Amino acid sequence: MNSVLLDKDLDIKEFAKTTAQIIIEGMILEVISHPSPGLVSPFSNGSHRDMDYNTFLKSTAALSKYMSEFVSIGYNYNEGLLQRIREVGILAEKDMFKATNGINTQKGILFLSALIGVAAGRCRRLGTTLDRYNLSNIIKETTKGIVERELKSAYSKKDLTNGERLYIKYGVEGIRGEVENGLPTVIKYGLPEFEGALKSGLNINDSLINALIVIISKTDDTTILNRKGIAGLYFAKSMAKNAIYLGLMKSKIGRNYIEFMGKMFINKNISPGGSADLVAATYIIYKLEKLGECI
């Protein structure tokens, strides 16, 4: 472990840098994990024709310089956190789109990472334990009312975002509902599966894939809904549940089935992008807890 993580007197600048490093690590590990059905990896473009592994690396590099700033926001400010996140987030998005020639690779994980970074900064400021429960509660507090403000008000709008349209059509709250509830999918399903897989002897790659499949089975992924509607979502969840039954990456038949899932997802143009973002968040929070044990 890096010696800086063991410093009991870690100042906010070093804490912000270390937290930013963990966030970027999570973003990279999510995209390099394989087999990840329908998603971009070093071995497949998944269900994407407009992006590949290199696109994600360029995007992550462009976003990396902003991550410590989110931590600093959480440390330095008590109010208006969401507005400050969005002000910095707009700049980060512009750099992302510049790096990817206009392709939206990581808007979802940018938002999640910003919130997690702010929550980590708040934990440091308040002197509270850097763990999943405190991070969850701070994210809840930071995003309180976001569904009411940004989704329920959509009924009176003409030009709708994808998230607003899906909320009106299906009642799905997407990433806004997830964060306003404190990342319940990550806390209840992603982290327990990831940690359990690691303890069983699986490596990080396979543990992340296990977490991905479990998350697909549990969440109403708006990326899938946007592309393929409710039938596509049910299909993806059904395949994920089959993979869980077959043992996921712990068994040969489970691994083979997950590879088969990948072929089926590509064939049906299914991409669980929302689930991928939650997997990255799972790893980030896992590592932040490890950091919290050392400071």
What does this protein structure show overall?
The protein has 295 residues and is an all-alpha fold. The protein has helices spanning 12-32, 53-64, 67-76, 81-99, 107-126, 132-142, 146-150, 162-170, 174-180, 184-199, 204-218, 222-245, 252-267, 273-292. It has one domain (10-211, 276-290). α3 (67-76) packs parallel to α5 (107-126), α5 (107-126) crosses α6 and α8 packs across α12 (222-245). It comes from Caloramator mitchellensis. It is an enzyme of class 2 (transferase). One of its GO terms (molecular function) is ATP binding. Its EC number is 2.4.2.52.
Task: Give the helices and strands, then pairings.
Elements: H1 12-32, H2 53-64, H3 67-76, H4 81-99, H5 107-126, H6 132-142, H7 146-150, H8 162-170, H9 174-180, H10 184-199, H11 204-218, H12 222-245, H13 252-267, H14 273-292
The total of beta strands comes to: 0
Could you tell me how far the N terminus lies from the C terminus, measured between alpha carbons in angstroms? 13 Å
Helix/strand-derived category reads mainly alpha
- Tell me the number of helical segments per DSSP (H or I, 4 or more residues long): 14
Protein name: triphosphoribosyl-dephospho-CoA synthase
EC number: 2.4.2.52
Pfam family, one: CitG
GO molecular function: ATP binding; glycosyltransferase activity; triphosphoribosyl-dephospho-CoA synthase activity
What are its keywords?
295 residues; mainly alpha; 14 helices; disordered N terminus; glycosyltransferase; CitG
